[in-house]
Specification:
- With about 575 residues, the chain is of the alpha+beta class.
- About 55% of the residues lie in helices and about 10% in strands.
- It contains 20 helices and twelve strands.
- The strands form three sheets. Strands 1, 2, 3, 4, 5, 6, 7 and 8 form an eight-stranded mixed β-sheet that branches. It has a two-stranded antiparallel sheet with strand order 9-10. Strands 11-12 form a two-stranded antiparallel sheet.
- Helix 8 (about 255-290) runs antiparallel to helix 12, helix 9 (about 305-335) packs across helix 16 (about 480-505) and helix 15 (about 450-470) runs parallel beside helix 17 (about 510-535).
- It starts with about 35 loop residues before the first helix and ends with a helix.
- The mean pLDDT is about 95.
């Protein structure tokens, strides 16, 4: 086993708050290789031909239709991108996954089914499985012969997932574990052949098991009647005296929480990725409608407030997409470095743990970006947006679940500050040292977006320092101020990701406007959250001093976002979609 080594600063989780990144440090959609673009184009053609024309059949869950499409996708290699070549996959990384699943997720129901299969359904085996388990199951998953699912949630253990009641007991002959319990909200349950199931051995030690649908005692309930994502299968999974061979324990008995939590990191990242894909599709639909719909003798796309909406949707998508691809490449690079963590046997890759904070940030930000985009899409459609005859209504319904599953956004907001503190206390990055040498003076010179990002990082450290002074190490239990700090951290990550992308591609005619609008508005949000935190922790005299420091750090000359949005909306309407807008010169 390789000993974990010191990584470059930009490949250390959370370290974006303590260091200044360079444009060369980030990966952007524009950096995709020719091969990756070809894979994305193949996925796009598949969606245009085989999936999007048949959404109604998928929404009404026509028997066997979704399963057939998933297997067709597998036949084209889309479901085996990250599975190692020796087990029938392509052995590619997260950036390739972004390129392909960014197309599959244009329709949420189908995209979710594929994402669960390729992500939380199969990655526990990829990252934590023994050689024998990988050889037995991964080829079937990569080929689509078997569909995978992930069974963690129970009726009484949602956000507190490890409070599960599903039990496992060793059989008298020692050859099996006998599982009993019920799992809820299991995606792909209706057609899955394999479940990653979590249960407590002897009622206390969380353990992960590979459970085949064919094992006696495994059954599923009826399809849940859901608000959205109707094209996916969601059912209960019932386990009644299911005998699971001891060879099907993942990792070690009693250490299933390592698997559950680290796989959720990857699941959260995938949610963010899927949300941006869905948002791009909603923007495309809204743009088309705004050009076709005429009022007062003109297309509504020519009206200022509609242009504002289209432009802001584009700005938000750009920032979220920049976060997604930046995070994808960081995870990919650390996975490729091969460092393993010896917390359990066999050890697992450092890459799936290192960026837990960033994965939560991506999940929260992108799910809320999607909610904003689909809401504005309904508004642009007017009354027709409320009709199921138009795609805006379905997209609106499909969006809502993303803020709930893989940890609610509230739970993830609390996770971000606790992750910062935990990593600092474990000496995994020097948060406290950075606070000790913190200068409260803003960067000198011209007030640029880059300077504002740097000053915002200083403000984060100041706010953490104030929280520690007020509440000690337990400040992360103060949920309201912790959530405010999380929002500041997310805005800093999003601002920097968008800015570095723009600096990396100076020939773009539209990226500067997209970034300047986002930075301008993020500065206002950061200021509001900072004031909330300062008011909650400081007495009146000290509060005034800290507010003045925050004001100086966030010094920023407002930009003309009205004209910038007009330019963005005009180019969007000329090109027809987000993708063509970003690729235009």
């Amino acid at each position: 086993m390789n000993e974990p080594r010191q990584l470059p600063p930009h490949l250390i989780g959370g370290n974006f708050l303590l260091t200044d990144a360079n444009p060369s440090d980030v990966f952007t959609p524009e950096d995709l290789t020719v091969e990756q673009r070809m894979m994305a184009e193949a996925a796009e053609k598949f969606m245009e031909k085989e999936v999007l024309p048949h959404i109604e059949r998928l929404e009404h869950q026509e028997e066997g239709f979704a399963l057939r499409l998933m297997r067709e996708a597998a036949g084209l290699g889309f479901l085996g991108i990250e599975i190692p070549e020796k087990y029938g996959g392509f052995g590619l990384g997260k950036t390739s996954t972004c390129a392909v699943e960014g197309q599959l997720s244009r329709y949420a129901g189908f995209g979710l089914s594929c994402s669960v299969h390729t992500g939380i359904g199969s990655q526990p085996i990829t990252y934590f499985g023994s050689d024998d388990q990988k050889a037995r199951y991964l080829p079937k998953i990569a080929s689509g012969e078997w569909i995978a699912a992930y069974a963690l949630t129970e009726a009484d253990s949602g956000s507190d997932a490890l409070a599960m009641k599903c039990k496992a007991a060793r059989s008298d002959d020692g050859k099996h574990y006998i599982l009993n319990g019920t799992k809820m909200w299991i995606t792909n349950a209706g057609w899955a052949d394999l479940f990653i199931v979590f249960a407590k051995v002897d009622g206390k030690d969380v353990t992960a098991f590979i459970v085949e649908k064919a094992f006696a005692g495994v059954s599923t309930g009826k399809e849940e009647h859901k608000l959205g994502i109707k094209g996916s299968s969601t059912r209960r999974v019932v386990l009644e005296d299911v005998h699971v061979p001891v060879e099907n324990v993942l990792g070690e008995a009693g250490k299933g929480h390592y698997i559950a939590l680290n796989i959720l990191n990857m699941g959260r990242f995938k949610i963010g990725m899927g949300c941006i894909a869905a948002a791009r599709q909603s923007l495309k639909d809204a743009t088309r409608y705004a050009l076709e719909r005429h009022q007062f003798g003109k297309p509504i796309a020519s009206f200022g407030l509609i242009q504002h909406k289209l432009a802001e949707m584009t700005v938000q998508i750009f920032a979220g997409e920049s976060m997604v691809f930046r995070t994808a490449k960081m995870i990919e690079d650390v996975l490729e470095a091969g460092d393993m963590l010896g917390t359990m046997n066999p050890p697992y890759p450092r890459g799936i743990e290192e960026f837990a904070l960033e994965c939560s940030a991506v999940k929260i930000a992108c799910s809320e970006i999607l909610d904003f985009v689909v809401d504005e899409a309904v508004q642009i459609h007017g009354g027709f947006g409320y009709s199921e005859e138009f795609p805006a209504a379905r997209a609106y319904r499909d969006s809502r679940i993303n803020r709930i599953f893989e940890g609610t956004n509230e739970i993830n907001r609390l996770f971000i500050p606790s992750s910062l503190m935990r990593r600092a206390q474990r000496a995994q990055f020097p948060l406290f040292e950075a606070i000790d040498r913190l200068s409260h003076d803003p960067a000198e010179g011209e007030i640029t977006p880059l300077a504002l990002v740097g000053n915002s990082k200083k403000l984060v450290l100041l706010l953490i320092s104030l929280l520690c002074q007020k509440f000690g190490d337990s400040w992360t239990r103060e949920q309201e101020v912790s959530a405010c700090l999380s929002d500041v951290v997310m805005d800093v990550y999003a601002m920097e990701s968008a800015l570095l992308r723009t600096l990396k591609h100076p020939a773009s005619t539209i990226m500067p406007e997209l970034t300047n609008i986002f930075v301008n508005d993020a500065a206002a949000r950061i200021g509001s959250n900072a004031r909330t935190i300062i008011a909650a922790v400081a007495e009146v005299k000290a509060m005034r001093e800290h507010l003045e420091t925050a004001r100086r750090l966030l010094r920023w000359n407002p930009v003309n976002t009205v004209s910038m949005r007009q330019k963005i909306a005009g180019l969007l309407c000329e090109t027809g979609s987000y993708s063509t807008l970003l690729s235009s010169k």
